[in-house]
Amino acid sequence: MIVFQGVSKIYKNGETSTALDDTTFEIGPGEFVSLSGRSGAGKSTIIRLLIGEEKPSKGRVFFGQYEVNKLKDNELPAFRRHIGVVFQDFRLLPTKTAYENVAFALEVAGRPQREIMELVPQVLEMVGLGDKTKNFPNQLSGGERQRVAIARAMVHRPEVIIADEPTGNLDHFHTFEIIKLLEKINQLGTTVLLATHDREVINSLERRVITLDKGRIIRDEPKGKYILV
């Protein structure tokens, strides 16, 4: 489903810096994969390349039938509906309720109101927020706000969920609530790509771990552990 072939990403802002260096890996449908490594190891660069936010300096990035690095700007919105992205800082609209935040993702895509009214309650119920639909973000806990963000990411029924440090702003209890939710989503058939440097999370999952250091993959283990480089 996801293929990186010899991908490098080099930034030139005054001085040259290499964010990814000849990176090759594949992720199959239905996998749960953690990207691990220190800050600056290349995790976020992989995500930006995968969603077409940036293009590689060298190599090719595939998602299903798409060669992402060749997509034009006007093709990216339709492509990105195949991928749901969850961020550390939630990125919710503060003046909209939980329901409205999720619905907005469908409205932007031009989905009919009847479909929105059917899908939004379903996905909020799935993330355990069926009773919080009218709450604004400032009326929700950090864990609940991240659940709204996950619901918003899931509402297009994407093939892949990318979670970029989704528990970075959460306490221990809410961290594992979110991880259990991502596992549930994975069990329902959605591929999950989790970028995190949380040792406890990675070790508890006992799933595939791709470990990065200075833009290179140094480990790729089916039941990996968090290992400092």
Structural features, described:
The chain contains seven helices and ten strands. The strands form two sheets. The chain has a six-stranded mixed β-sheet with strand order 6-7-8-3-9-10, with helices on both faces. It has a four-stranded antiparallel β-sheet with strand order 2-1-4-5. The longest helix has 16 residues, at 172-187. The protein is globular and about 45 Å long. The protein has helices at residues 43-50, 76-80, 98-108, 113-126, 142-154, 172-187, 199-205; strands spanning 2-13, 15-27, 32-36, 58-63, 66-67, 83-87, 160-164, 191-195, 208-213, 216-221. It is an alpha/beta fold and 229 residues long. The model has no long low-confidence stretch (mean pLDDT 94). The two termini are 29 Å apart. Helix 3 packs across helix 4 (113-126), helix 4 (113-126) crosses helix 5 and helix 5 (142-154) packs parallel to helix 6. Strand 9 and strand 10 (216-221) form a beta hairpin.
